[in-house]
Design brief:
460 residues, alpha/beta, 2 domains, 10-stranded mixed sheet, 3-stranded antiparallel sheet, 17 helices, 13 strands, binds iron/sulfur cluster, rSAM_sf, S-adenosyl-L-methionine, pyridoxal phosphate, iron
Length: 460
């Protein structure tokens, strides 16, 4: 029997849980620790234009900001990746770079930078990649086949009641794992990007025409790229035209910039414009929300919270996060929960989804197996409020998002899961077997046992 004086204290009891919640105050890391920004003022830092002009777009600019903090070995590793593996070009706003290797002493900076979760997806290096299987044999440039489902250029009609409107093919930041690597950003030595061919105004006219003619579509994700790169008057005009269509009931603005360049979303002209749109949406009973993309708690700073709260204050109904689950970045229960508590508790951003990283080229080192995603989903249940407990989803090619426990069959040896669906995508309306078919999804080969790895080696 345990004597009374041996009974655990309340704090010790908490420690016996797999995860311990501790409220953490958000902090804006001091950008002056970077030699290149030693004299940057707070006013400059809060200025969206200063942030855009001072984005890091190449090695020369990275050297200018970091001085001698990073070793030559790191630069060699970075150059090797850019020449051979990168599917996205380099574009990192100061705000994002400032959330990397936050507490590192100058002598340890390279090691801390290499290990940093934000660096690992924003600035990949050669040694990050999977040495044996950098790409899965079934990886594809447009792995979700979005362009195949365009009903007009840039308008993907994949789900019966929802469409995705790609307004622009650029972002204020480029993420190494971008699922739209086929279209978004500048070409890299490896990837020659596709280009949108219509003029923005013509593309938008065609999108609006399609939505007017298709009253079954009630939900429009206005995306890109990142809507923060659409000139505000153009975006506001498109949103107002959407709000004129009575059958459109949900509008979601997709912008990673809320976290990568929050300065954009606190500029007075953008805030005033957002307020006009939110007021109109509210009057017409339309749910207007912002969806952002934050992958690690380090990225949630006071400026990010300010941007989210500003949007809520001017009448946006909700700000939600759709993160991407990636090894080395956030694929542990602690990392996911720390991020969700920072978003939900400190920034009023609802943790909504974590997508499994899609099957694009050279992404195997980030991807997790479906069974790993299932374990993570299990591990994060019960800590957050139910409505703020994110779902981990697998975006299965030709199917769409499925919760990770929804698979129909799973060959663990070969790492192939099979999924079904209950609607036809836009390209299967005449396909009688679309709803009976099983659609495969593939685990990273490096997560398989010996027999599975051998099978894939024999195939390729
Ligand atoms: S912000 Fe989104 S669209 Fe832009 S590069 Fe990142 S993942 Fe791709």
């Amino acid at each position: 029997m345990t004597a009374l004086h041996d009974a655990p204290t309340a704090l010790e009891r908490l420690d016996r849980q797999p995860y311990t919640y501790v409220r953490r105050e958000l902090v804006e890391p001091d950008w002056r620790r970077f030699p290149g920004w030693a004299h940057v003022t707070e006013a400059q830092w809060r200025d969206a234009q200063w942030q855009r002009v001072n984005c890091v777009k190449n090695v020369k600019q990275l050297r200018k900001v970091t001085g001698d903090l990073l070793s030559e070995k790191f630069y060699d590793d970075l150059a090797a990746d850019q020449e051979t593996f990168a599917t996205m070009s380099m574009l990192i706003p100061p705000q994002m770079l400032n959330t990397m290797a936050v507490d590192a002493a100058p002598a340890d900076f390279t090691d801390a930078f290499l290990a940093d979760p934000v660096r690992r997806y924003m600035l990949p290096v050669r040694s990050d990649r999977d040495p044996r299987w950098p790409s899965h044999p079934h990886s594809q440039r447009d792995s979700l086949h979005e362009a195949e489902m365009w009903v007009v250029e840039g308008l993907t009609h994949r789900y019966p009641t929802k469409v995705l409107a790609e307004m622009v093919s650029t972002c204020p930041q480029y993420c190494g794992h971008c699922t739209r690597m086929d279209l978004v950003g500048n070409s890299t030595p490896l990837i020659d990007k596709h280009k949108l061919s219509l003029k923005p105004v013509d593309r938008q006219d065609q999108m609006i025409d399609y939505l007017k003619k298709t009253p079954g579509v009630r939900d429009v994700v206005v995306s890109g790229g990142d809507v923060a790169n659409v000139p505000w008057p153009q975006l506001e005009s498109f949103l107002m035209r959407l709000l004129d269509i009575e059958t459109v009931r949900d509008i979601r603005l997709a912008t990673k910039a809320l976290a990568g360049l929050p300065q954009h979303w606190i500029q007075p002209r953008v805030v005033e414009g957002l307020e006009r749109v939110a007021r109109t949406a509210s009057r017409r009973g339309v749910n207007l929300a912002i969806h952002t993309h934050v992958n690690h708690a380090q990225s949630v700073t006071p400026l990010v919270a300010e941007a989210a709260r500003t949007a809520l204050e001017v009448g946006v109904r909700d700000v939600r996060n759709q993160g991407v689950l990636m090894k080395g970045v956030n694929a542990t229960p602690d990392d996911l929960l720390d991020l969700c508590f920072a978003l939900q508790g400190e920034a009023n951003i609802l943790p909504y989804y974590f997508y499994m990283c899609d099957m694009i080229p050279n992404a195997e080192h980030w991807r997790v197996a479906v069974w790993e995603a299932q374990e993570l989903q299990h591990a994060i249940m019960g800590y957050l409020p139910g409505y703020a407990t994110p779902r981990i989803v697998c975006d299965v090619p030709y199917v769409g998002k499925r919760w990770v426990h929804q698979l129909a069959e799973y060959d663990r040896e070969l790492g192939i899961s099979y999924w079904t669906k209950n609607y036809r995508t836009g390209i299967e309306l005449e396909d009688p077997e679309a709803l009976d078919r099983r659609y495969p999804y593939y685990d990273p080969i490096s997560t398989l046992g010996e027999a599975g790895q051998k099978w894939w080696s024999d195939q390729t």
